Amino acid sequence: MILAISDGWGLAAAGAAATIYAVLAIATVRLSESALKGLLLGAWLLHALALADALMQTPPRFGFAPALSMTVWLVLTVYAIERRLFPQLHAHWSLAGLGSAAVILATVFPGTTHHAIASPWLPLHWALGIASYGLFAAAVVHGWLMVRAERSIRLASQNDAGVPLLTLERLTFRFVEAGFVLLSATLLVGWLFAETFYGPGLAWKWDHKTVFSLLAWLTFAGLLVGRARLGWRGLKAVRVLYLGAGLLLLSYAGSRFVLEVILRRA
């Protein structure tokens, strides 16, 4: 269902978060560092309130757009932490624009209601999956910054990211490694408790979500092996990262988008 978010503080928080993110995306270069930090913190908190409102409804709502919104929120959380370690890191405008789009999308498409939880392990399965989404999304952002930094070096121009290329590469693959561990745990929980999730006699549910998740897992495994054994670096490694992230995006968000928006099914 579209625009079914609660009429109270959740909708107000979403509107305010989207607005502040948009201001940050448009006016980053004209704002002071303290203003940037304050606005980003305010938008981040309002974004969290909007997400919490949907999850705390009775029954709770969730779907492809809230999953993407939560993923972007996790990326922004990672970015805020990294900014304390690497103050020279610059990605305000792109992440703020992404945050605004994600909040608006989750407001328009708040997902479907979940009247009952099939298993007490299902929330863990969801949490691990969303966390892996967030880490791989952070890896994609850093991979994008890494490609831009490498291009700047080739053109002998200033590095817009503000962080050395090797540091960006190291951060990118740390996120890939952490995301791979969580994705592996997500698939393991789904396999171990498949009967409680999907019903007796179902050891594994071979749907689009499972197939794309396994393809993404194989792609990321290949990326890590290629880096360790074959020395994959730079644009080649980032392209494989993009492929894996695209497959992972199709696994839940893509399949839920088709069900919720195109087929109008829960």
What does this structure look like?
There is one protein chain. The chain has 266 residues and is mainly alpha-helical. It folds into two domains: 85 residues, no CATH class; 150 residues, no CATH class. 75% of the residues lie in helices and 2% in strands. It has nine helices and two strands, in the order ααβααβααααα. It has a two-stranded antiparallel ribbon with strand order 1-2. It is flat, with a radius of gyration of 19 Å.
List key phrases describing it.
mainly alpha, 266 residues, flat
Topology of helices and strands:
Elements: H1 9-27, H2 33-55, E1 61-62, H3 64-85, H4 92-108, E2 112-113, H5 122-154, H6 165-192, H7 194-198, H8 208-230, H9 234-262
Antiparallel strand pairs: 1-2
Helix pairs in contact: 1-2, 1-4, 2-3, 2-4, 3-4, 3-5, 3-9, 5-6, 5-9, 6-8, 8-9
Could you write a compact summary of the structure shown?
The protein has about 270 residues and is an all-alpha fold. The protein is about 75% helix and about 0% strand.
Strand order of the largest sheet: 1-2
Please trace the helix and strand order, writing H or E for each element: HHEHHEHHHHH
User: How would you state the average pLDDT, rounded?
Assistant: 83
**Helix vs. strand class:** mainly alpha
Distance between the termini: 9 Å
Counted up, domains total 2
Could you tell me the number of beta strands?
A: 2
Strand portion, in percent? under 5%
Proportion in helices? over 70%
Describe the largest sheet: 2 strands, antiparallel
How many DSSP H or I helices?
9
Q: Which geometry do the CA atoms define?
A: flat
CA-based gyration radius: 19 Å
Uncertain runs are 1-5
